[in-house]
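Input set for joint prediction.
Command: fold jointly, output tokens.
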Amino acid sequence: MNMFREALLVAGKDLRIEARSRVALQQIVPFGGIVLIVFAFALDPDRGLLPRVAPGLFWTAVLLASLLSITRSFSIEEANGARDGLRLSGLDGGAIFLGKAAAVALQLLLLEVVLGFGVVVLYDVSVRGVVLIACTTVVATVALAATGTVYGVLAAGLRARETLVPLLVLPAVTPVVLGGTRAFEAALAGAPSDGWPWVQLLAAFAVLAVVAGVLAFGPLLEEDS
Amino acid sequence: MSTRVGVGTKILGAAAFVSLGALAVFALVVAPPDERQGDAQRLMYVHVPAAWLAYLAFFVTAVASVLWLVPRTRSTTWDLLAGASAEIGVVFTGLTLVLGSLWGRPTWGTWWEWDARVTTTAVLFFLYLGYLALRRTGATAQERGTRCAIAALIAFVDVPIVHFSVTWWETLHQEATVFNRDLDVQFEGFWMPFTLIFAVFAFTLLYAFLVMVRLRLAELDEGREERQLEEAIAERVAVTV
Amino acid sequence: MGRFPVLAGADLDVEAGDVVLLSGPNGAGKTSLLRLCAGLLPLRSGAAEVLGCDLARDRRSLRRRLSFVGHETFCYDDLTVAENLRFAARAVGRGVAEADFAIARVGLGSQANVVHSRLSQGQRRRLAFAIALARDPELLLLDEPHAGLDADGRAVVDEVVRVAAADGRTILIASHELDRVRQLATREVEIVGGQVRLPVAPDPEPVEVSP
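tokens >
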């Protein structure tokens, strides 16, 4: 069985678990929503600040929610020795990485659609440059999901993993937040040509993250905790 | 097992101590104060070496991590070296940020600037902290080596990306903001550049000495872990005899 | 087929088709031995070969060829019996049909659509066996397979082991149910304090097993 089909199998498994347990839908998406609302409490909504910083707030909310997604992706492997099961399964480490990262990415995309609506409604943002926004979102999401999945398996099984994963992921993905925000700003300002170079940066980051994950996931999975 | 450091390390330590003493003289007495910044500029004689070491230490950690990951060169020493260098590195990174801030206040009027160098150094600081937190998750090199090594390498590749992305952002910012502060210090004449280069040299000696001492400590620690493990195994075997 | 040197330097050779009972007190190392053979534990010193694969270098390629049934089921709580089984089967390239057949063989047919978290202890053990068999392994590693099961459950385990042995699979069983497993086993080996020895009655000295 080739790597692509193995990845599909793993992604399918993760998504089926999500479909049944509904953790992303019932907990992580609402979490993103409440983060958006907290921002309104933290920043004065009356001074016209929110629409200006909306791109940054969007990506910050996505980033924080992605930490939950990553943690969740690996906590399902904790029970019943499922992690040993993955090792014994005979699946290729890189394929497991692609599958899990893809499942996280899909859940994040769903979250981003909802938060996008949230930002438009809550922060009074008028949407322009939809193509740029869509491309940015896809590429940045792949970058986030891939990087997060690497750190997720790295910290899997460790006792302090819930606090380790955020500490590890956040500094590493600062360029993604930067790129995503700048691209969104360009799109909303009606100057998409300023935004596309940022999409290229995000794409390069995503490629690096995916390559790193395919190479490192197998050895990291073998690590005894 | 001796708890002392080797002769080479002691010589390094002496050399570092002497150099730093000489540096103090050069930096505080011999070198002239800057025309515009006055005596505050003397902070540069520590800030610049500290920044250099922050990145050098990280580089050493990355190289040691590679040596651990490659099966043929894998050895406990590399894992311990990576950790030792990271501990020294995080201190110098923090020092860089603090001194930069102290220098920046009288010079720029603010405690902080979001330019590429400062921002990247701040992110580096947190990458270090994450790495050090990871190191505590395993008592022996065998347990923590691979995941720490991979984390170090990811961070190592990430730092230039962070720097690049912020630099890019800066250049886009130029038109919009008042970003033409002179962030660089001019080192003129003879004594100022000389003192600066000497400072980098002296601090590098200090780094090397500190890493060797820390490495020795780590080896003793690791040895203790291994001995405890062996004792536990021996006990177990003894039960059956 | 396999050679297993343990701490005291005694070897363990297992021929293809053997059904070996590993007996010994708790904490002696039976589980560790099985996990080592499964490639789940790394080999720190010495040499070991399982199914022709060197354990020090090549742990991954042998994993598709063996199955491990232990205390954990390696399953996902939110997935049903059928879904867990199909995932495990497809991971080694077997089809859905083989998975469904295994479900029937262990008597879980009526629970096929029950999620793992709702299964009883006995049903979980049967699921673990179904997964183990669906992979069509050359080597079966069983860690206390009768533990926690009622009489029916134990009978199912015995039947599974008998059929697997008849199929020519090699089986290592770590167990406290000495009488029961002795009827299924072709050999017995005792593990005490991490060392392998034959239970030669009063003599406590470790014995070398020569091929």
